[in-house]
TrEMBL record:
Homology family: Belongs to the aldehyde dehydrogenase family.
Signal peptide: none
UniProt name for this protein: Succinate-semialdehyde dehydrogenase
Statement: the UniProt record of this protein carries the keyword Oxidoreductase: yes
Organism: Paraglomus brasilianum
Keywords: Oxidoreductase
Length: 495
């Protein structure tokens, strides 16, 4: 595919539209530096080489952005739903029109294979389209009144300025899933993307600008060293009325505590420790494919990926063999190389956590069937472990890496206990050919989302979110716009 791209870094791949590669923040419809003038580097996790620099913003920058976003809210919230719909549809069309360039930028800063990055761009765009169509379906109610001279009406209004704090693992889709709902509802947003992947946020800002979304409605601020003060400002600034965060449970708890100072609305999508259960009446080939789809997408760096794979004892050996055979066909490499099926982990810290989990499991009796090797840099071989037990770190911690950990179980009752023995409750999966068991398990698993005979559960039409310590609120679906709206009751009397 022919691309033309010119920046100071001549080692970067070529883009069709070089103007999509932005290295300044976007506030109030303008491309701006940090007030301090400071910048930080963005690196390619495959090569660990710098690919650009973006502003190192601080709390003062956020205060300015909040004031400007609030000014924009006064007009945006009064626009008709049809007007917001039309602008979001234009944004959606521009994202798809430039999807190859967006995927290239995403791969550069995140590392996932280009094909997978392109899939994320399309997935992310689907949320903009979905919420454009939800914008014109924010309905209220008329309540039968107990008094003949009164009419009781319920309307829904946008909450105001919203702070969106998004992660690096899905640097496009985690923004569109939040911003699509917020803008459709009539809110304005300040996006603080993951420090590892700010360029994907900035290209969305460029396309929002081209779509005609008014200044101050969609803002992107970037930071790395000042992330704690920026996060605190977003949570405590009284102008900002809601926080939506995707990331670790520990950070989510801190943001929720800080947001309590102004009683903000919060939506938190936090860590997971997903069980993936295979019963002996399951289609083993389908279960292997589903486990690979769930576990190894984004090199295991997803919050809903299978973290603990429970296999009924009578089929464990066969399942392990087939899974290892498939994993052995993977090609680990730079995401920009056409034959790479899996890319690097995001950084050395992520590599160290994966190494720790594998070494802990082996020390406690697990067997490495395939993989288990840290090659170089941020590359860790896709791994299958067998003989896992409940006292291993993987049983209680989210690995966030390419390690399929296999546990043996005997009975349905036993595996439900294993699956629910965690403070997390985001997603759970199981494979079975028994319809009655499917209903029992779906209801028994303590999670917000269940996949039955499938390893892929995410789409814009369905609600995404967890229970327990995996968060509060839902994103996507018809429910996703509700957290960006206030319910107002009107009693019209004297009739």
């Amino acid at each position: 595919m022919s691309r033309t791209f010119s920046t100071e870094n001549k080692n970067l791949p070529k883009l069709n539209d070089p103007k999509l590669f932005r290295q300044t923040a976007y506030v109030d419809g303008k491309w701006v530096p940090a007030e301090s003038g400071a910048k930080f580097s963005v690196t390619d996790p495959s090569t660990e080489q710098e690919i650009g620099k973006v502003p190192e913003m601080n709390a003062e920058d956020i205060k300015t952005a909040a004031i400007l976003a609030n000014e924009a809210f006064n007009d945006w919230s009064k626009q008709t739903a049809k007007r917001r719909h039309d602008l979001l549809k234009k944004w959606h069309a521009l994202i798809l029109e430039n999807q190859n360039d967006l995927a290239t930028i995403l791969t550069l800063e995140n590392g996932k294979p280009l094909k997978e990055a392109l899939g994320e761009i399309k997935y992310g765009a689907s949320f903009i389209e979905w919420f454009a169509e939800e914008a014109v379906r924010v309905y209220g109610d008329v309540i039968p009144s107990p008094a003949s001279n009164q009419r009781l009406i319920v309307i829904k209004q946008p909450v105001g300025v919203v702070g969106l704090i998004t992660p690096w693992n899905f640097p496009n889709a985690m923004i569109t899933r939040k911003a699509g709902a917020a803008l459709a509802a009539g809110c304005t947003v300040i996006v603080k993307p993951g420090a590892e992947t700010p360029l994907s946020a900035l290209v969305l800002a460029e396309l929002a600008d081209r779509a005609g979304i008014p200044k101050g409605v969609f803002n992107v601020v970037t930071t790395h060293e000042n992330v704690q003060q920026v996060g605190e400002e977003l949570c405590t600034n009284p102008i900002i009325k809601k926080i939506s965060f995707t990331g670790s449970t520990a950070v989510g708890k801190l943001l929720m505590k800080q947001s309590a100072s102004t009683l903000k609305k919060v939506t938190l999508e936090l860590g997971g420790n997903a069980p993936f259960i295979i019963f002996d009446d399951a289609d083993i080939d389908a279960a292997v494919d589903g486990a690979i789809q769930s576990k190894f997408r984004a090199s295991g760096q997803t919050c809903i990926c299978a973290n603990r794979i429970y296999v009924q004892s009578s089929i464990l050996a066969e399942f392990a063999c087939r899974l290892a055979e498939k994993v052995g066909s993977f090609k680990l490499g730079n995401g920009l190389e056409s034959d790479s099926t899996h890319g690097p982990l995001i950084n050395r810290k992520a590599v160290e956590k994966v190494k720790q989990h594998v070494e802990d499991a082996v020390a406690k009796g697990a067997e490495i069937i395939i993989g288990g090797i840290h090659r170089s840099g941020n590359f860790f071989e896709p791994t299958v472990l067998n003989g896992m037990t409940q006292d291993m770190l993987i049983s209680s911690e989210e690995t966030f890496g390419p390690v399929a950990a296999l546990y043996k179980f005997e009975t349905e009752e036993e595996v439900i206990g294993f699956a629910n023995a965690t403070s997390s409750g985001l997603a759970g999966y199981f494979y079975s050919g028994d319809v009655r068991r499917c209903w029992r398990l779906a209801e028994a698993l303590e999670v917000g989302m269940v996949g039955i005979n499938t390893g892929a559960i995410s789409n814009c039409e369905a609600p995404f979110g967890g229970i327990k310590e995996s968060g509060v609120g839902r994103e996507g679906s018809k429910y996703g716009i509700e957290d960006y709206l206030n319910i107002k009751y009107i009693n019209f009397g004297g009739l």
